[in-house]
């Protein structure tokens, strides 16, 4: 059986040599091959320390370890939706790319026959560790393991410490004092995890490579749910469904709430003959935002005038406003959720005599709506 070490790293590539040392010392199966998941900004540190400075090969030499397949081609850079490397995964959208990438790579590795994956969550950002642990729980087989390494505090995060050497080697600690690498202690801890692979429908597992991490979570959160709740938080301008948050603008949130109140909105030939829809919508909107473009440009009124019920000049709601706002909301829902779940929240439209009827699908899908 081929043993593969999968490790995540950030600014401290030493976790790789520390993990490899600990595996050897504990008598566990050494990897035949190593893969590293990291970011574009962290890769130079990894390449310089492990290859240019030679710490990886030196570890193998010092402890007479067999050759392990590991080179720059085994370093996987987290990619965005266009296949471009993520620089440092510091933004919210980068976290989405990170989750998708890690999940996809674990899926790929665990599909390889006659292999055993040893995944280490010792390096990288905390979110990287979480996503790797989650992916292992989702895809991990009986032979696949999860671990963490702990280093003596006096050697932790020292740029010149890479592993406990078999001979004396002195480096400076954080206080500027010399410490001997030979005296360092490293502990490899196996992390028990729930293997869900055999508990999840194969169709869900098969589809994961084609959907995002958040969509996977949403699907799994609703597998055995008889009643699904839609939590609407107007102040946060957020819909939460199947554990996934969907952020809306004040304009969009007001529209979604307003349409829920309408139950069925019939946009017919007479729709633009009345200002009642405008007034009802702006009542919702004024509680969430004060965007002058909405008041002035869309409805022809100042927010101050609306507040005192001076509705002179208030324009009827235009059909294009309904169509465009609906499209933007639906896009956000579709982007966040798998198709079968998104359909339950979308704003639907059906052609009727002389017009179009709009309705929030949640009203007809046995969805429990909670307003917080």
How many helices? The count is 13
CATH topology of the largest domain: Rossmann fold
- What is the string of helix and strand elements? EHEHHEHEHEEEEHHEEEHEHHHHHEEE
Instruction: Please state the average pLDDT score.
Output: 89
Cα Rg = 28 Å
**What would you call the quaternary organization?**
single chain
The CATH architecture of the largest domain is 3-Layer(aba) Sandwich
* Total number of strands: 15
Which range best describes the helical content: under 10%, 10-25%, 25-40%, 40-55%, 55-70% or over 70%? Answer: 25-40%
CATH superfamily (homologous) name of the largest domain:
Hypothetical protein VC1899 like domain (Restriction endonuclease-like)
Share of β-strand residues: 15-25%
| Uncertain spans | none
* Total of domains: 2
Helix/sheet category:
alpha/beta
- What is the C-level CATH assignment of the largest domain? Alpha Beta
How does the overall form come out from the CA principal axes? elongated
Instruction: Describe the strand arrangement of the main beta sheet, using strand numbers.
Output: 3-2-1-4-5-8
Distance from N terminus to C terminus (CA atoms, Å) equals 53 Å
Largest sheet: 6 strands, mixed
Describe the structure.
The chain is of the alpha/beta class and 372 residues long. It is built from 13 helices and 15 strands. A hairpin with a 5-residue loop joins strand 6 and strand 7. The model has no long low-confidence stretch (mean pLDDT 89).
